[in-house]
Amino acid sequence: MLRRAGPSLRHFLLERNSSAGQRSCSIEAKMSRPVQARRLEGIDKNIWVEFVKLAATYSKVNLGQGFPDFPAPDFLTEAFTRALGGGNHMLHQYTRAFGHPPLVKVLAQFFEKLLGRDVDPMTNVMVTVGAYQALFCCFQALVDEGDEVIIIEPFFDCYEPMVKMAGGTPVFVPLRPNPPKDGKLMSSADWQLDPAELASKFSERTKAIVLNSPNNPLGKVFSRGELGLVAELCVKHDVLCISDEVYEWLVYDGKQHIRIASLQGMWDRTVIIGSAGKTFSATGWKVGWAVGPNRLLQHLRTVHQNSVYHCATIAQEAVAQGFQRELMLYGKPESYFVQLPKELQQKRDWLVQSLDGVGMKPIIPEGTYFLVADISQFKSDVPEVPNSDEPYDYRFAKWMVKNKGLAAIPLSAFYSEAHKNNYTNFIRFCFAKEEATLKAANDILQKWKQEKTSS
């Protein structure tokens, strides 16, 4: 038998595999370069990721994240069930990309009534995957590199990273507390803008201001005078207004929610953001909207069609039926928009009394799901740590959920890095909960008070 010269087939295969392994290592080494886009730098941390995990692990009572633990109204869930199981199979398919026709039509009818002007359902209304996506579309569509966006503190935490992702520069102006001198509990109305300070933030680089009324986390409902000041500055400096009004129906004590787009000169420069989740106590449905002039919304539509493109048809159909019902009952006692704030005001008052009774001084909110409480009297329970980089309210909230089983959110999470250390003696609670949940929270607080008294 003749022996073939050269390496054997086995040797050849081993050599090839070894060479391929070397090439693979070489390729992997080349992929070690940074992959993160620059627009994500510094915005990777998220308060909700951290504190939702803590609440899920430790809490017996979660008054942290802002969602109701009571059911959505029957008329809404029944509308969803009909849409899901009814004979219209097209509700399982795509609908119009910028909003299901029945929903944009009834939203337009509602906003015509609320704003006192014509609203075109096809050009002045766009449906989004929750208010979150509506906000994202605003910043991506309207903010350019180098543009400045004024954000009023405290603010819902997504505003800052969304501005930065769009290439803009956030400019912060705080609501400043003016405690009452008669010893009464502070109200969210006592937190006010300084007119001169606000005016100083406007410049030729200012593209937009973000207004959130009723405000999360504070519960402040901006007065007509405060809105007039903002409007005057927007018109003077030719600035847009992104008006986050997701808690528009949740105002208390006879307060009135005023829509800034209804003020003179503001419709043409305002995008109103709304949420079916907050309106109908169904936050998981993720149906939101943007309302405004076509000259602004046409650019939001461009972002929407090239990102999310479409929202769940069945959820939009159910929300449309919910609004149709509310349009017929508008202003009547049977209206959900009348009943819900009455129920929530009672829950707010119950939690205010509970917190005040144990020494956490609540700031009484005029609206929203939330109230903020001063925890200064509890510093003996969670002492300051010298030279700590973590704000005190973060450490307090973490200690409270781990040791007492009660979840809340640190207020400094709603401030810019430059200002958060000025507001570390407060935490935010959500009172949009069942009576049993609020009672369980009260039981924890009362037990805590007894432990403090006896120690």
Give the overall pLDDT as a whole number.
93
| Uncertain runs | none
Q: Roughly what percent helix?
A: 40-55%
Largest sheet: 7 strands, mixed
Which structural traits does this protein have?
single chain, 15 strands, 14 helices, 7-stranded mixed sheet, 455 residues, alpha/beta
Structural account:
By secondary structure, the protein is of the alpha/beta class. The protein has 14 helices and 15 strands. Strand 7, helix 8 (224-237) and strand 8 (240-244) form a beta-alpha-beta unit. The chain has a 7-stranded mixed sheet with strand order 2-10-9-8-7-3-4, with helices on both faces. It has helices at 9-30, 47-58, 74-85, 101-115, 130-142, 159-165, 195-200, 224-237, 276-279, 294-305, 313-328, 336-358, 392-403, 435-454, and strands at residues 61-62, 125-128, 148-153, 169-174, 176-177, 191-192, 206-212, 240-244, 270-275, 288-291, 361-363, 370-374, 406-407, 409-410, 426-430. Helix 5 (130-142) crosses helix 10.
Helix and strand topology:
Elements: H1 9-30, H2 47-58, E1 61-62, H3 74-85, H4 101-115, E2 125-128, H5 130-142, E3 148-153, H6 159-165, E4 169-174, E5 176-177, E6 191-192, H7 195-200, E7 206-212, H8 224-237, E8 240-244, E9 270-275, H9 276-279, E10 288-291, H10 294-305, H11 313-328, H12 336-358, E11 361-363, E12 370-374, H13 392-403, E13 406-407, E14 409-410, E15 426-430, H14 435-454
Parallel strand pairs: 1-13, 3-4, 3-7, 7-8, 8-9
Antiparallel strand pairs: 2-10, 5-6, 9-10, 11-12, 12-15, 14-15
